[in-house]
Structures
1.
Amino acid sequence: MTRINARSPLLSFGISMLGPVLLEFGSEAQKHEHLPKIVRGEIRWCQGYSEPGSGSDLASLQTRAVLDGDEYVINGSKIWTSFAHLSDWIFCLVRTDPDVPKHDGISFILFDMKSKGVEANPIQLISGSSQFCETFFEDVRALRGNLVGEVNKGWPIAKRLLQHERNMVAGMGTQGAPKSPEHAIENQAKKYVGEFQGKIANSNLRDKITRHKMNSKAFSLTLRRSASEARTSSAPSPASSMFKYYGTEQNKGRFEVMMDMLGAQGLGWDGDGFLDKELSTTRSWLRSKANSIEGGTSEVQLNIIAKRVLELPD
Ligand SMILES: Cc1cc2nc3c(=O)[nH]c(=O)nc-3n(C[C@H](O)[C@H](O)[C@H](O)COP(=O)(O)OP(=O)(O)OC[C@H]3O[C@@H](n4cnc5c(N)ncnc54)[C@H](O)[C@@H]3O)c2cc1C
């Protein structure tokens, strides 16, 4: 679509993460209520998973939901909730039974971010921007009908959503493949380091760019192969951890190559002496460092690959 100058397709937590999970686990009423708004881009969802103390060990989460008549009453807090302050609804993991093993007492619930008792405080980053929030729930009431799947059976749903999220994040690693917008990287490199016999003058940089493009191409073919294999089974698998791991490393590598190319022009954060494009590359390079944390860290992906894909002993 970029190649033909079309505008980007709609991308959201609803489309990439919650929508597929509702299709698999949601009730008919939930599908009818939420899916049309998701596909029309009328609703923005945020993800209430991580808590202070429960990131990699997500199943240790403490936010409580207690049934009161036909409603759940929710108390607790979440952290790193991306764009919670701008979101309409949240899909949230809550503990509905504290007396059973941790994975067996979790439920997956949806509620309106405008509900009484919800507070989303943006966390200001060193860059000055605020992409995620500390989110607090005090006696927030959510209809029982907003629980997805069965009570206390939320963990498999939570994991499935993470697999969709990881596949989405993995897609970053295909940028840089030939014919993608990053194809232009060679032309830019010639501008920054010069040209010799039609090639990038710096052989080291030329080598890095070529390797990067080959890996991106191989990775995008692997993703396509896996997507067509997945058509024969209904859902993603723990293999999404392999793609998330590789894709995010690849995306970070892409920005490293671009920083090599920019040289001193990549040192700017603000102000004169730098093109807007250069400043935004430097900021995106720093932002790319978070790719191997968000959606589960690289170390956690390696653990999942060892246990669930390679089936190595604990
Ligand atoms: C840009 C960004 C956006 C995010 N958006 C959201 C969001 O919208 N909603 C949400 O719920 N969360 C979000 N998160 C949070 C993210 O899911 C967590 O940061 C992530 O799961 C890691 O948890 P943690 O930060 O608590 O680190 P910790 O779990 O404390 O980990 C600290 C370090 O220890 C390592 N580690 C931990 N356990 C193990 C282990 N068993 N084996 C080996 N190493 C281990 C980790 O790899 C990491 O290096 C976001 C994070 C980022 C960076």
2.
Amino acid sequence: MHKPVLIKEVLEYLNPQKGENFVDCTFGFGGHSLAILKKNKPNGKVLGIDFEKSSLEEDRLILVNGNFADLKKIVEKNDFYPINGILLDLGLSSWHFDKSNRGFSFKGEEPLDMRLNSESELTAEEIINEWSEEELIRIFEEYGEERYSKSIAKSICRNRTTKKIGNTSQLREIIRQSIPGGYKHNRINFATKIFQAIRIAVNDELNNLIKTLPQALSLLKPKGRLVVISFHSLEDRIVKNFFKDEFKKGNLEILTKKPIIPSKEEIIFNPRSRSAKLRVIKKI
Ligand SMILES: C[S@@+](CC[C@H](N)C(=O)[O-])C[C@H]1O[C@@H](n2cnc3c(N)ncnc32)[C@H](O)[C@@H]1O
């Protein structure tokens, strides 16, 4: 089961009241949504969106299988107004890492897939085996902020000339061989940043976020709250800058001067929460 991150803080900021409506753009296993539904009963609703299909059923819950970048269209189609709060809990659920067998985790031997939306065409395998060395360097630098992007990209291109790179353990081994020894003993695993970069590219994650934030702000009713939980600095920067720009235009009030991070207790209980940052705005 996915443990919802920063649940207490999300409820505090969304502050769901009887009859209010919320959009959960990253429904996942419904942890946040179910907690909201307990608060906005008996007639408040939640519109939940996710790339993954869900089997959860609840009278006041509308589930849509889709991309949150289509937020406005989804809200219009479901005539889901007025909206008191919107939540984006970005990234992947623990199910994706542990159970999906789509190659998100660098630990085992899984196919190089990494698609969140199994209907989309681009896979990690295509990126690794077909993209040019320059393109690989670009995504490793831009989306992974990886120090050894050049030597890793070079080594991928050399290896794939003899044999297609077919699974995550082959990729992990190539990464391991292309970086200096000391780096392998860093606190974070040596393959983390490259796997992150490929995943972001496969799912166009940063562009989806960039497209969604303005839609979310315009859909909220005045005084409505937008809560965003991000898991790495690239996402957090996009959120922070969007909030800052819209604040300067007088469109919102920033409720979290600094991002909120999980307590020590939460990190022990749920280690995946350790990199979470939560930012909240209130529409004017
Ligand atoms: C961290 S999980 C959310 C967990 C959820 N809050 C819970 O309590 O169970 C992020 C979810 O967002 C989904 N997701 C990521 N990008 C998406 C996108 N562009 N459109 C729709 N869903 C997306 C993933 O499939 C994943 O289920």
